[in-house]
Specification:
This protein has 16 helices and 4 strands. The chain starts with 9 loop residues before the first helix and ends in a 19-residue tail after the last strand. The strands form 2 sheets. Strands 1-2 form a two-stranded antiparallel ribbon. Strands 3-4 form a two-stranded antiparallel sheet. The chain has helices at 10-28, 33-54, 61-70, 78-99, 105-116, 159-170, 173-176, 180-194, 201-215, 227-231, 234-242, 260-288, 291-294, 298-310, 316-323, 327-339, and strands at residues 141-142, 149-151, 343-347, 354-357. By secondary structure, it is mainly alpha-helical. The protein folds into 2 domains: 10-287, Fic-like fold, CATH 1.10.3290; 291-369, Winged helix-like DNA-binding domain superfamily/Winged helix DNA-binding domain (Arc Repressor Mutant, subunit A), CATH 1.10.10.10.
Amino acid sequence: MYKPQFQYTNGIVKSLMAIEKYKNTVEMLPLPKDIEKELRKEAKLKMTHYSTRIEGNPLDLEEVSEVIMKRRDRQGLQAEQEVRNYWNALSFLSTSRRLKIPISEDFVKRLHSIIEVRGSGRRTEESDYRGPMRPGVLFAVYDSVTGQPDYIPPEANDVPELMKSFVAWMNSEEAKELPAPIRAGIAAYQLLTIHPFYDGNGRTARALATYILSIEGYDLKGFNSMEEYYVSDLQGYYAKLQMNLPVLYYNGRNDPPDLAPWLEYFVLIMERAFQKVARIAQSKYTYQIDPRVNKLGPRELIVVKLLLSKNGDITPKEIAQEFNVVTRTITEWAKEWMKKGIIEPASGTERIRAYRIGKEFRDLKLSDLGYVETDK
């Protein structure tokens, strides 16, 4: 079974901690459904545009959006078909996530078949691995400027066993014990190293990493897109993938090298992408929220949410249970809340047995706080 080699560096650990911070920020910010839908669509467009741009697709983001909106199947220019294919692949991954489809060789082949479908006619359900080249032809990844091989992958007859070993590792307990960002980074690297298909390996590897992150809850509600950062630093992206290793697979890559340089780069890009998403989510959240709500502190926000959810009076004991404190503590906090007009007594004046929301806040709805109201 494939066994990746790496050591945690200070850079990797720092980025993993930052990723968790930004992930929690996004998860805790409630946004209206229309805003979430807008952010997910924008992220999906960016993933489609930038992942195909890495492979030389000339369409810009606006053109990609127009192609997707046409909803035409396998018609038009090859560049249009490429972006439409990748869009469909991301939809396939979204469905697979909902259905909890595990990663297998068949899954990878199916994903690739969607990414690489060409021309008219019936789609193949799964791609085949690449076969032997004709005599005198070298299968390699070539430098677009010099024409020299950048990387010579393993021979075709070794691909099936390498893929079997790789997928077995991805489903192993050893792999599942790793942080999801590390596992996704390793998966992207190893699929590119094996290069199991004639074309589309880069897009398939990035899509596979996206799927691993999404099933582990690291897709930031579908708002995340790392590919644009790769495009902004393509030379760095390729250099980190190469890690100064020999061009020929059998000269050092077959004995798993230390992946720390690549993983440090992968999680750093992920950190920057997550930071951007967190900022956008925070901006959308602040913009959408009622000005009165923006003045509320964290505890006050919880109390208002609780009162709006109850749609009536609430006892000090119920509030105490929400904060996991004793009732006496709530009585003290309530004095400040009443001064601010957030709450007012619902029964009694000296010994208050229940509170209701203050007059200034009485017309608020949960959606004004950024929470999605329960569908009826």
